[in-house]
Fold:
Amino acid sequence: MNKSIDSISDAVAKIEDGSTVMIGGFGGSGAPIELIHALIDAGPKNLTVINNNAGNGHVGLAAMIEQEMVSKLICSFPRSADPRAFTDRYLAGKIELELVPQGTLAERIRAGGAGIPAFYTPTGFGTELAEGKPQKEFDGKPYIEERCLKADYALIKAEQGDGFGNLTYRMAARNFNPLMAMAAETTIVQVNQLVPVGQIDPERIVTPGIFVDCVVEIQNPQQEEDLNRADVRYPEVTT
Amino acid sequence: MNKSIDSISDAVAKIEDGSTVMIGGFGGSGAPIELIHALIDAGPKNLTVINNNAGNGHVGLAAMIEQEMVSKLICSFPRSADPRAFTDRYLAGKIELELVPQGTLAERIRAGGAGIPAFYTPTGFGTELAEGKPQKEFDGKPYIEERCLKADYALIKAEQGDGFGNLTYRMAARNFNPLMAMAAETTIVQVNQLVPVGQIDPERIVTPGIFVDCVVEIQNPQQEEDLNRADVRYPEVTT
Amino acid sequence: MKQRLDEIKLSNAQIAWRAAQDLRDGAYVNLGIGFPEMIATFQPEGREVIYHTENGILGFGPSPREGEEDWDLINAGKKAVTLNSGASFFHHADSFAMVRGGHLDLAVLGAYQVAQNGDLANWSTGKGGVPAVGGAMDLVHGAKKVVVVTDHVTKNGDPKLVSECTLPLTGVGCINRIYTSLAVVDIEAQGFVLREKLDAISVDELQALTGAQLHLDGDINLLDAPKL
Amino acid sequence: MKQRLDEIKLSNAQIAWRAAQDLRDGAYVNLGIGFPEMIATFQPEGREVIYHTENGILGFGPSPREGEEDWDLINAGKKAVTLNSGASFFHHADSFAMVRGGHLDLAVLGAYQVAQNGDLANWSTGKGGVPAVGGAMDLVHGAKKVVVVTDHVTKNGDPKLVSECTLPLTGVGCINRIYTSLAVVDIEAQGFVLREKLDAISVDELQALTGAQLHLDGDINLLDAPKL
Structure:
């Protein structure tokens, strides 16, 4: 079994127009920038993207949105230091937004991966975001029913990975990545370091390989925050 | 902050008659034998116990049942190599049994720890174990609603622990332990090794200390399987 | 008939061998406690299979030698196992997320009865005593394929492949294929479909030992297993 | 009145200082993005507090020096942080299990409006634009105590403590205490209960700046904070 491949463009080549794509990361931490840029090169359109945010500046998810690849975004916090890519298109009615509380977003994704079609949560009860959702009382307290989220693809970023698809993460870059790995039909991972099978301590593996389909090594990956400070734009504008 | 204490009898001293107690372990792996025996010494009665099994032989949970401390058991598999302690009392109508599919048991406990009052699962649909439970269809498939499980106390076993209550586990002894740690009002842990705060790699911590109230070091803990092979009985019968 | 059946029928080891021939390279597989566990022994050469056990290991290997058991390294049947390279540990909620979430390629279970609509009864004889379910009701949901290994008939000669289960159900419409001591039967929209049978038994004889109609759909292949 | 208010009222730093005096030793605390984060700066000597950030760290410490940021080690406000000894990492579902599951001792949030029944509005001005909620709706549920730090009135001088929120709600009946620039107010069964006020303002003046009745229940303590 060897889930690792060399070519990042091959890794994302099958993602078609109209797919639902989960993209890991919280802001720039854990965001698979190189996979996103490879997807921009491939250029599928009309995607539904699930991410905590809506991109920042002109790289990563923001660049995908600038390339008009995203028709719907499911996220909790579509604001950032430079949210223009999303804001402009949202206010122009060009991109649909499903706003989900952050913890509910995480739990819906986990539920999608765990075969739980729906669950109840107190989060959002009595607010605009609960409108139209079934409600139920348990032990005298009101809750709303939330459905699971699944995707055709997940693009995630990990620290170490092996050919079985076993993964570890780096600090707070863990965030949504292990959850999205569970909830997508096909999970594509960029790892900072590809190691031989058996080298990662079985106790330390956060995502077991069963949740992973494809691993590509990207040494010294770019960090969204650094790219934005350097005012990088993807794809580079050639004049 | 120092959650570690020296005395195992102090660790369990507050558990009162009528409490609900989660006990970690799958069979003998991960079973906190020394904590259970300390609880037998303390002797509270009329307990509701949540465990995957119903004990084996005459030590651990089986011994608790023999001491007539358990009035209700919530478990998935009350059979073992030597299940007499439970079987005799169950067939005599002295102990109540709530039988729960193993995956549903795990998910109900996680839900209890995660503030999710109820969730839907396909497990058990159309079976005796779904009787009386609300049903609902999602995307054309039928599911049953399951409620969360919480407890007053959890007795769990871990490999390493520190004074903050951060924990790691040993191989398949992990099983229900991290889930029960989340779902109890008070979580009491026996660790094979107590280490200084900061010594466990933050990436390797499985149970963050926020879920733990009390840590007691038990070096070289007993293993249920070994005790049963040696025909041990707790408390020892004095003639 | 009973005596003849006992002579021609496959042993449990042979049924397990036959089921093992269908293990796909690279598959994630959960083998139920007891009889199904035997399938791993017959895993065909050159195929890599990763075994899941619901108590929290992916990638475990065969039993250790006697005296070398580590009782923190056990499978769902509480038997000591070993670890293969690339294995991982996880808690029960994550383990059943793998099961329920559709991540396993195959789950293999034993059966008291399987109905023509795919219903399975394998956890309770309905006779009282102490009921115990374990992970059976979870395992029938989620795996991409759920199959059964079983004798074709009970010890009394009654069909185990039935029109409707009379014993308490484990799951509804969940079984895809049955490997028996006499045949391989798929469950499809029309019910039981006979795929393979022993040479020594006729379709009519097999039908007589089966509690619902055996549909024929194309070739019936030869069920054959080496002496084991 | 506005000018006088501006002279006597506590600064945000002073409100944060006052809230920090109530941090319990050994508490697990989540400080909302922005103003509430300032509370950590004023953590009283001798008390150990463990800070949770919903993006997946328990036990983070202050910002690193400029140039020493690691952008994989950030808080919910996406600011670089450091790690204290005994810290741990976890994914978002586990992180919000801590929040929703009642494991945090305290959550501190900012507010647009707080109603006398404990309703909070702090995520949307209701004016259109791009809505964003983040973890606010989760944080108001589960923590053993949920408190607000805020100016007592809006920039226009309108009450932020109101009889009923007119802005979109973050959560229903979820706030226990409000630390304002003029007072400390608890929310109990009868509504707002005045616990502390600045010496320079009378109860009547405070009532005039509050959108619902301020109940009195025993002593009103002096609200005082050092110059900061």
